[in-house]
Specification:
The complex is a heterodimer of chains A (254) and B (341). Chain A has 254 residues and is an alpha/beta fold. In chain A, the strands form 2 sheets. In chain A, strands 6-7-8-3-9-10 form a 6-stranded mixed sheet, with helices on both faces. Chain A has a 4-stranded antiparallel sheet with strand order 2-1-4-5, with helices on one face. The radius of gyration of chain A is 18 Å and the shape is globular. With 341 residues, chain B is mainly alpha-helical. The two termini of chain B are 38 Å apart. The chains are: A alpha/beta (254), B mainly alpha (341). The interface between A and B is large, with 48 and 35 residues.
């Protein structure tokens, strides 16, 4: 049985058809990359998988259970979500922001237990935030804040992680470390789905890719099967030479 | 390197010091409110004259004049402070305040309308109920005008619009009033005061305020998580529409009841959460209770300020809080302008 099984999702907002007939299977232990040009429906798909919006037709099953039959609390424990533009409205301390991830398990900052502290501490370490735990969120660099949001996501210890462009603001070192953290999460707890813009990184770090364009699945499968020179040129509207010039072929071989 | 659990525990733990200090300050100010005034009464005399069977002049002053006034200052301040903190957390906007975004104005309109239509004379609960209804209409209108996920400016502007409309309608009712003396009286009442209130006023509004406080206090966890934005908060299991409803109804009950008994007292809900925020880790959920206690302290202090003898009579409480609060509001606006550059 797949960990995540999506069948025939169609989603409209007003008259606009944002996603059409999406199918998706994800096995436990895997990292799935969602790629596609701007406006393809990647973020919309993640919001639907997080249960933040409900498709007009189709089902999303996690471990065989429709996520819309879950209570909000059960869904929060099972699925972690990192939005494309992660927000932090008040200058709370880094450790407190990461601790908010534990709210998915019914905790609050006054009632954190042993396991909560362990999860927060592991997430902070994973994201290289050891020295920043007492720092206020408004005194961080963009990259540091981005890592705080990832740590908040990891601290929830959900079964399925959904991360919408989590590495957009990061240096190469932390891009690698965050993707590695998502991989470790997938192996230990379930699976991860990550929206990526960099096709190279997608080719190197994902087990499976889902290529979307104009709200439809163009191709799904291993990076090698999905990323072909002709398809990249057509879908992303770039010259045929882009594929080799950007080293995607090399990334697929590595 | 690993984050040690003890270091983490230390960072996440909150000192009880600031809240304890606020409680002590409030108790001291409450005592001062019983002792100070045109007649100075020592704390020992206050304790002696609190017994119900004492009919001496001092006992009347303490029990019938100063005690209700001090109790109402605590209740009104706690309502304004907790509603301010909750609204700021919900709208993620440090400038939201019941007075500024028109909730108090709506409540005043409701109360004045009840006075003039004569329905207020019908039953004892009609006046606070009209105040709360006015407040509820105002918050609902602001929510609709500002829309979902509205930015700071939109919410404030919607609030300003509602505020202007309420005060225009209130003035219109005053203009149409057949009795100029009554209109004059209402005008002064609108400026906010706790003078000449009785224990009946206390008992009249207390149940509504209690329900309001409980609703506001019940949104603590949700407010913490809302710091991450609405989508993330929902993904962490927060029921967003319930949180909105509780805060809207809770502030309408607490502020509506407060306004119907004290008139419009501005800026308490703005100043208090803002001053306390750094002491409570900038956590919106951790601010509700301290803001209630701090609001009580500020209102007690401001009410003491109104007792300073002036040639033209007593200062109005709403005037004192506005004199403290308006410069403060300006400073906040200027700060947010700098931050946006």
């Amino acid at each position: 049985m797949s960990l995540l099984e999506v069948r025939g999702i169609t989603y409209r907002r007003g008259a606009q058809l944002l996603l059409q007939d999406i199918d998706l299977d994800l096995q436990a232990g895997q990292v799935l990359g969602v790629i596609g040009p701007n406006g393809a429906g990647k973020s919309t798909l993640l919001r639907l998988l997080a249960g933040l919006a409900r498709p007009q037709s189709g089902t999303v099953k996690l471990d065989g259970q429709d996520i819309h039959t879950h209570s909000a609390a059960t869904r929060a424990r099972a699925i972690g979500y990192h939005p494309q533009h992660a927000l932090m409205h008040w200058p709370m301390a880094v450790a407190a922001v990461v601790a908010l991830g534990r709210y998915a398990h019914g905790a609050s900052l006054e009632t954190l237990g042993e396991s909560d502290h362990a999860a927060i501490s592991a997430a902070l370490t994973r994201c290289g935030l050891e020295t920043l735990i007492a720092r206020r969120a408004d005194q961080l660099s963009g990259g540091e804040l981005a890592r705080v949001h990832i740590a908040r996501l990891l601290a929830g210890q959900h079964r399925l992680l959904l991360a919408d462009e989590p590495i957009a603001n990061l240096d190469p070192r932390y891009q690698m470390e965050i993707l590695q953290a998502l991989r470790v999460h997938a192996q230990e707890r379930g699976a991860a789905i990550v929206v990526l813009h960099d096709l190279n990184i997608a080719a190197r770090h994902c087990d499976q890719l889902l290529l979307l364009a104009a709200g439809r699945v163009v191709s799904a499968g291993t990076p090698r099967a999905v990323l072909t020179a002709a398809r990249v040129a057509e879908i992303f509207a770039v010259p045929a030479s882009y594929f080799h010039a950007m080293g995607i072929a090399q990334a697929l071989r590595d | 390197m690993n984050v040690s659990t003890s270091a983490l525990r230390h960072t996440l733990s909150h000192s009880r010091g600031p809240l304890t200090a606020l409680w002590i300050l409030t108790v001291l100010l409450f005592g001062a409110a019983l002792c100070l005034g045109p007649v100075l009464i020592s704390p020992w005399q206050v304790v002696q004259h609190l017994y119900p069977n004492d009919d001496s002049t001092l006992a009347l002053i303490v029990r019938d004049i100063r005690l209700p006034r001090a109790l109402l200052a605590v209740m009104v301040g706690a309502s304004l402070g907790s509603a301010g903190a909750a609204l700021q957390g919900l709208l993620r906007n440090p400038l939201s305040e019941p007075g500024i975004i028109g909730i108090s104005g709506g409540a005043a309109l409701g109360a004045v309308a009840a006075f003039y239509s004569g329905v207020a004379a019908g039953a004892y609960w009609v006046l606070p109920a009209s105040g709360m209804l006015g407040a509820l209409l105002a918050v609902t209108a602001i929510q609709i005008l500002a829309g979902r996920g509205a930015d700071i400016l939109t919410v404030i502007l919607a609030g300003v619009a509602i505020n202007s409309l309420s005060s225009a309608l209130t003035t219109l009712i005053l203009n149409l009033s057949p009795n100029p003396f009554a209109a004059y009286e209402i005008y002064f009442w609108l400026l906010g005061s706790l003078a000449n209130r009785s224990l009946e006023h206390v008992l009249l509004v207390l149940p509504f305020m209690l329900i309001g406080w409980i609703l506001l206090f019940g949104t603590r966890r949700a407010l913490d998580v809302l710091a991450l934005g609405e989508d993330t908060a929902v993904s962490l299991g927060i029921n967003l529409s319930r949180t909105r409803t509780w805060i809207v109804v809770g502030s309408a009950l607490a502020v509506g009841a407060a306004v119907s008994v004290s008139g419009v007292i501005g800026f308490v809900g703005l100043v208090v959460p803002h001053l306390l925020r750094p002491w409570f880790g900038h956590r919106p959920g951790a601010l509700i209770l301290p803001s209630a206690v701090g609001g009580a302290a500020l209102t007690l202090a401001a009410d003491l300020g109104t007792r300073i003898p002036l040639a033209g009579g007593e200062l109005k409480l709403g005037v004192v809080t506005a004199l403290i609060g308006a410069p403060f509001f300006l400073r906040l606006v200027l700060q947010s302008r700098v931050a946006q550059r």
